[in-house]
Amino acid sequence: MNRLHLAGAAALSLTLIGCQAISYAPGYNSGGFNQPRRAGIEGQWVDPNGIVSSFYSGRFETRTTDTNSLLAQGSYTQVSPSLVEIELTSLLRNTTSKVNCAQVSRDRLNCTSSSGSQFTLSRRA
């Protein structure tokens, strides 16, 4: 009988340890698994005017939020973990330009165009 109790206690201990390991796993909370927060530049970013910029696998584009119209498109290069160079073509003006963006935090990009204008993008939730 003592061996049965000992085996049961050992099984219960292993089960509890497993539950604790799962509950503290990254991306988990009491409500279930969450999407991990993206690191780096990939994903969607928005400027103060509501224009959405998307960075996916070297491709860059900006769209309006109301009609989802394409405003500009191009490509980007991750120069360093915190610096991105964008080469884009404006479909409204039919011009090309370059923009450098510094990722100053996980959710913020400070950008400067080749003409010297500056703007900030925030990661879209």
From TrEMBL:
<keyword id="KW-0449">Lipoprotein</keyword>
<comment type="similarity">
    <text>Belongs to the rhizobiaceae omp10 lipoprotein family.</text>
</comment>
<keyword id="KW-0472">Membrane</keyword>
<feature type="signal peptide">
    <location>
        <begin position="1"/>
        <end position="21"/>
    </location>
</feature>
<dbReference type="InterPro" id="IPR049857">
    <property type="entry name" value="Omp10-like"/>
</dbReference>
<keyword id="KW-0998">Cell outer membrane</keyword>
<protein>
    <recommendedName>
        <fullName>Outer membrane lipoprotein</fullName>
    </recommendedName>
</protein>
<keyword id="KW-0732">Signal</keyword>
<dbReference type="Pfam" id="PF26368">
    <property type="entry name" value="OMP10"/>
</dbReference>
<keyword id="KW-0564">Palmitate</keyword>
